[in-house]
Amino acid sequence: xxxxxxxxxxxxxxxxxxxxxxxxxxxxxxxxxxxxxxxxxxxxxxxxxxxxxxxxxxxxxxxxxxxxxxxxxxxxxxxxxxxxxxxxxxxxxxxxxxxxxxxxxxxxxxxxxxxxxxxxxxxxxxxxxxxxxxxxxxxxxxxxxxxxxxxxxxxxxxxxxxxxxxxxxxxxxxxxxxxxxxxxxxxxxxxxxxxxxxx
Length: 199
Fold this sequence. Notes:
Layout: E1 3-12, E2 15-24, E3 35-41, E4 48-51, H1 53-62, E5 65-66, H2 68-77, H3 79-91, H4 96-198
Parallel strand pairs: 1-5
Antiparallel strand pairs: 1-2, 2-3, 3-4
């Protein structure tokens, strides 16, 4: 039986999610499998992998042939490095403590790289949010300036209308006063004319 380590596709359309499985090479892609080793989510950055390291190492050492993507994942998770180190221990090239030290150093370096990627992503997201906020602030300020200008124009128009109304009222009052004076003068003129006639 040709044993393969490969990916089983799950998830929705355009949102893939994979199970890392050990299966018979003749089985269909999403069919029966011997053992599930972990999961792989390519939609996150960096891609999220959960892996049963010991079982993956066991199957690789047993001779299970991984697919290209599965091999890349196993290499990224350090399974092939541990296999190589175990081969060195078996040959007597170095001790088990030295192998563990080398693997721990590799793992620490890998984690620091992943943390740097996550930090860069977080910084990029913060800068994008900052730019978006600045753009929104500019738009709000422009809208506020337009509203203030419109209200100022409306207030000025209302003040001008009020001034015109006051001027019209004053002119009407003056006209009424002039008319009353004219009427008073007209009434006084006949009286004055009658007074000398009576004498």
